């Protein structure tokens, strides 16, 4: 196991038992059986470790939900699979989810807040694309429906994470599909307009998004030398990002080359979102 991964796993165990604030770097290094020096070679501070954990889990959940929305062929199954996939992910990452929910009310630095806004914005994009696919692009209350779906996800995640009673995720997903359908079909008084929505968002500029994608691509090119097809696809996608030269069919083919690699789900999602593919 890589040292960085070991630190993250052992730290998560301690955070789940004690919380972020009560857990020290010393306790983490003792749990890992490493020196403090070894810890600081991987992370500059405990805050950076926490942010890395948030990145890891939010990337996994966001990219998994995006794959569900994109890959589900039958439109009438998308919403159910979305809800089921979301709650399954919360069960899968329940230790971190519980710790994060309990600790997020504490004071965090600006970088933490910006990171949460970023992943929240990405989730909203996925939900809006799903709503438009299911109910049509001209649904008057689509922004209100999007926030309703987020509310369902948040409320029911809290409910089953902190309850000792076992939940039937299949029944939960079916129930929320019914509620969402009712709202979408009968909501007659929308509150959120596009103008209001844009004013309350915290958008990342297109140039900032491209820089982030190029940085991750460089990491993938270096780290995936054992997969020549994926590596070459990243090299060509990087070239296309810097100076668009390929047609949509070629770009889709390059994305298809990388999307099935388990280490490339997040960067695939970012590229698809940025390139509007």
TrEMBL record:
InterPro entries found in the cross-reference section: Homeodomain-like_sf, HTH-type_Tx_Regulator, HTH_TetR
Protein name: TetR family transcriptional regulator
Domain HTH tetR-type intervals: 1-61
Organism: Niallia nealsonii
GO molecular function, one term: DNA binding
Keywords linked to the UniProt accession: DNA-binding, Repressor
PANTHER family to which the protein is assigned, alphabetical: ACREF/ENVCD OPERON REPRESSOR-RELATED, TRANSCRIPTIONAL REGULATOR, TETR FAMILY
DNA-binding region: 24-43
């Amino acid at each position: 196991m890589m040292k960085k991964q070991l630190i993250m796993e052992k730290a998560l165990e301690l955070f789940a038992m004690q919380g972020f604030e009560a857990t020290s770097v010393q306790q983490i290094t003792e749990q890992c059986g490493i020196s403090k020096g070894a810890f600081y070679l991987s992370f500059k501070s405990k805050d950076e470790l926490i942010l890395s954990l948030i990145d890891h889990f939010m990337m996994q959940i966001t990219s998994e939900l995006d794959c569900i929305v994109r890959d589900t062929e039958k439109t009438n199954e998308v919403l159910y699979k979305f809800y089921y996939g979301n709650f399954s992910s919360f069960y899968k990452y329940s230790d971190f989810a519980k710790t994060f929910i309990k600790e997020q009310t504490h004071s965090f630095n600006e970088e933490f807040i910006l990171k949460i806004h970023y992943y929240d914005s990405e989730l909203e994009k996925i939900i809006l694309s799903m709503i438009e696919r299911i109910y049509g692009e001209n649904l008057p209350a689509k922004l209100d429906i999007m926030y309703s779906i987020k509310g369902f996800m948040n409320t029911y995640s809290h409910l089953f994470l902190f309850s000792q009673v076992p939940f039937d995720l299949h029944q939960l997903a079916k129930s929320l599909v019914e509620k969402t359908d009712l709202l979408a079909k009968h909501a007659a008084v929308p509150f959120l307009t596009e103008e209001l929505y844009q004013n309350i968002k915290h958008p990342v500029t297109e140039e900032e998004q491209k820089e982030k994608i190029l940085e991750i691509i460089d990491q993938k090119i270096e780290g995936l030398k054992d997969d020549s097809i994926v590596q070459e696809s990243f090299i060509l996608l990087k070239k296309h990002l810097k100076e668009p030269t390929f047609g949509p069919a070629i770009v889709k083919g390059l994305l298809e080359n990388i999307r099935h690699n388990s280490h490339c789900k997040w960067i695939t999602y970012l590229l698809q979102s940025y390139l509007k593919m």
